[in-house]
Design brief:
There is one protein chain. By secondary structure, the chain is an alpha/beta fold. The protein has one domain: Rossmann fold (3-Layer(aba) Sandwich), CATH 3.40.50. The chain is built from 10 helices and 8 strands. A 5-stranded parallel sheet has the order 2-6-1-7-8. A 3-stranded antiparallel sheet has the order 3-4-5. A hairpin with a 3-residue loop joins strand 3 and strand 4. Helix 1 crosses helix 10, helix 2 packs across helix 5 and helix 8 packs across helix 9. Bound molecules: 2'-deoxycytidine-5'-monophosphate. The site of 2'-deoxycytidine-5'-monophosphate has 14 residues, from helix 2, helix 5 and helix 9.
Length: 224
């Protein structure tokens, strides 16, 4: 049985998480937030005070770590039995994840953990290389992006809403730095798959983005 996979790749803050989660819910498919796997590994590495460039040591941590995902209205992640959800969204975690994600052996070690999510009746996979490396044969591929200024603005508003003090200029810089690192690394850089649908969400609402993605799937079902 060919299990359908929808990959949604793009830079951080483009709305991939929200869009992917809602689409998975609508279709009744499983959801893989691959960034949270890199983020969890970053937390484990920081906890063990291992240098973020030490590839062999980080590979060992990746092999040994036990991750549990509980997908409800929000995603709960447990690392070796401990709830690390609160730390997942921190900027320090995101930056550390982006650094260790550039290590090719680390990426190879995490491949199977990600592919294990492909289960009946379908999977929505969100990340940077879902359509180009992890699920190259996915039936549906989307590249979701937005301008750096718009993504920084969204992140700024999100933090403010949570009552967290934020600086728009600093957030813009961090986003641009992370984009550069994710796009320029040698191993599985963030690029659009040649067979992906390109969506720039800068001027779109979440609802219109979801509609565009669902169209892709529905069109396919209508074909003879
Ligand atoms: O999507 P995110 O912001 O949670 O991802 C955090 C970092 O993890 C991101 O900067 C790069 C890395 N990542 C990756 O290299 N490949 C993926 N498929 C997902 C995330």
């Amino acid at each position: 049985m060919n299990i359908p996979v929808l990959t949604i790749d793009g830079p951080s803050g483009a709305g991939k998480g929200t869009v992917s989660r809602l689409i998975a819910k609508k279709l009744g498919w499983h959801y893989l937030d691959s960034g949270s796997i890199y983020r969890s590994l970053a937390i484990a590495t920081l906890q063990q005070a291992v240098d973020l460039e030490k590839e062999a040591e980080i590979v060992k941590i990746a092999r040994d770590m036990a991750l549990e995902f509980e997908c409800g209205d929000t995603l709960i992640v447990k690392l070796d039995g401990k709830d690390i959800t609160d730390q997942l969204g921190l900027e320090t975690t995101g930056s550390a994840a982006s650094i260790i994600a550039a290590l090719p052996e680390v990426r190879r070690t995490l491949l199977q953990k990600q592919r294990d999510f492909k289960q009946y009746p379908g999977l929505v996979a969100d990340g940077r290389d879902m359509g180009t490396v992890v699920f190259t044969d996915a039936r549906y591929k989307v590249f979701l992006t937005a301008s750096a200024a718009e993504r920084a603005d969204r992140r700024y508003k999100q933090l403010k809403q949570k009552g967290i003090d934020a600086n728009l200029m600093q957030i813009t810089q961090e986003i641009e730095q992370r984009d550069f690192r994710d796009m320029s690394r040698a191993s599985a850089p963030l690029i659009m798959a040649s067979d992906a649908l390109y969506i720039d969400s800068s001027e779109m609402t979440i609802e219109t983005v979801i509609e565009a993605v669902l169209n892709l799937i529905h069109q396919d079902f209508l074909l003879p």
